[in-house]
Amino acid sequence: MNKRVFLLGWLILCTTVTQAQFLKKMKDKVRSLTTAKADTSPEESPYEDSHPSPATGNPSLIIGGDEQVTIDSVFEFDIAVYQEMEAWQGNQLVINGGEQIVIYYSSAAPRMAIHLLSKSTGARYQFYADFIKGSQLSITAIHQTGSGDKEKLDLTTMEPVYPGETGYLNQLVKTGAKKVIAGVACEEYEADNVKTDSSQLKVTSHALVGARVWVPLQPHTLFPGYAFMPEYYKDQIASMLIAGTYPPVAMPLEMLLEYSNGDKVVTYTTDIVSGENRTIHVMDVIR
Asked: What DSSP designation does 98 have?
């Protein structure tokens, strides 16, 4: 098992540089999972799966994190936003270097999810947010082995998984520009302080120097369940909108990330489907 995970980790590190941070997180999660499995019994997690698989033996998903946080193992959604992420090295598109993305929303409850699938490795990263229970769940998985962390949900520190990079969503500031994407009125946000902090970077390094995203003008446009949020979260969202910062409850419909060495990550929406009920099992991430 350890040898297999080591080889998987080596494969992950050899993928495109635009996925480096995402895939490094994936490798670390899988590695930590192998050391924890000996001390974890199926009774300790509602997500633990003991059904055998001919391909890998025992599919396993172990959820850790804050013991006081509760989160469901099955979610209902009726809105899906389909997206593609492309990775560019200079002016050259990286073949199979991007990710497929589905963002799920509910019109009946304040919950959302984001699913990413790496085109090059098959690695998966999933994020769930439940505003009634005030909880979030982040999962990484590859080859039917996965681990996740559940945490208390706070919009001021919430950083949903999204392609190419992490750590910039809560730095976004409204620019005032607007446009319509897939029939949805959107406004532009930009991470200006990322550019400011990059002044000392070498041009050969792969560091984020610019982030521009287009998000729905009103959070409830694609996320009607927003109306059922507890007042605490609505107050947080209102305060962030007044301040011109980005409340991460309606994910971008377009995105451009630029790096100091000329690499780019471009994410765009291909389709939006509403009115179709979907039941998402958290355990599906390892099936």
From this structure: S
